[in-house]
Design goal:
The protein is an alpha+beta fold and 383 residues long. The chain has 13 helices and 14 strands. β2 (34-40) and β3 (47-53) form a beta hairpin.
Length: 383
Amino acid sequence: MKSGLAQGNYLASARLLIRMGIVRSLEYTAQGNALLFYVKELYNNSFLMIKLLYNSRVCRTDTGRKRKLYAINTETGGKGFMSGKLLECVPNYSEGRDMQKVEQIADCFRGKTGVRLLDYQTDKDHNRCVITAIGEPKALRDAVIESFGKAAELIDMTKHEGQHPRMGAVDVVPFIPCRNTTLQEADAIAKEVAEAVGEKFGIPCFLYESSATAPHRVNLASIRKGQFEGMAEKMKDQEMWKPDFGPETIHPTAGVSAVGARMPLVAFNVNLDTADLEIANQIARRIRHINGGYRYVKAIGVMLEERNIAQVSMNLTDYTKTAIYQAFEAVKMEARRYGVRAAGTEIVGLLPMQALIDCAEYYLQAENFDSAQVMENRLLEEE
């Protein structure tokens, strides 16, 4: 390691990056004469590593030359994390109230070589935790498998209550191509996870989305219909609902899981200024694809008991085809027929910057706007 003064200069530059929203945290890894930071690549929703060198000219914060100011270099080779293939995984766990249990599950993604825990969010009304992690495919695979074991140990679905539909302790596990990976590679890892979980923990797994083995299994809602309580009876129909991996009967306390590969989606919720859940249900029916609504919208109505308001909870499966603002405006339009308004919105987990830029363009009516006008994007450009 370099001197304390050099490291102090380095950290000053790093803190500036944090304030500008480029670097997520002050977590770093020493590598030779550099520290490596994890950051989000703003152009294509992939991920890269920024290298900040111990060099007085590089670490200065008063120069206008962006590459000298931040010493930004994308790592494209070598053995370091972020330099090769990366997948994203967003597993959903049926625990959102006991934070000790949540932390134990999240620990499965902490301190693992080749894996980075990006985010985890809980919802007490849904009684659900959503984790976002990225990593090298096999390292991420192993962390997810470990989390299955921990969730099965900690979560008893016979005692679970929550507003969100669920069928297992680990309800759904999507793998998403991230950097230098394809949907086919995500699919291969998803199948390895499902097979291992079935063999190791005795949890039946259904493949869904791009990994689905039959048309009626593509949609998660179709697999999850009946939820945990009705799954034992549902699985008696082996022709339709024999699991792709694992035992043919439900795990008594951990239920069943859906695992698969898909492209990025945006989890977007709209809160209504009403306590009438049926209104949220009606709005959800009108805007979701399965009932003739928007092609890339999945939606349900849920009740937020703590706040005594109803919510339209949505997954936008392709934000480039159905934008956040389109879904928001559709909910507001449908809500008007019932005399209610949108009381706020919620984004769960991470999302591509472009999804927010699309909203800014729409609501600001910006003409000829280019993403290169976003300061953070320009800071990551090559000179």
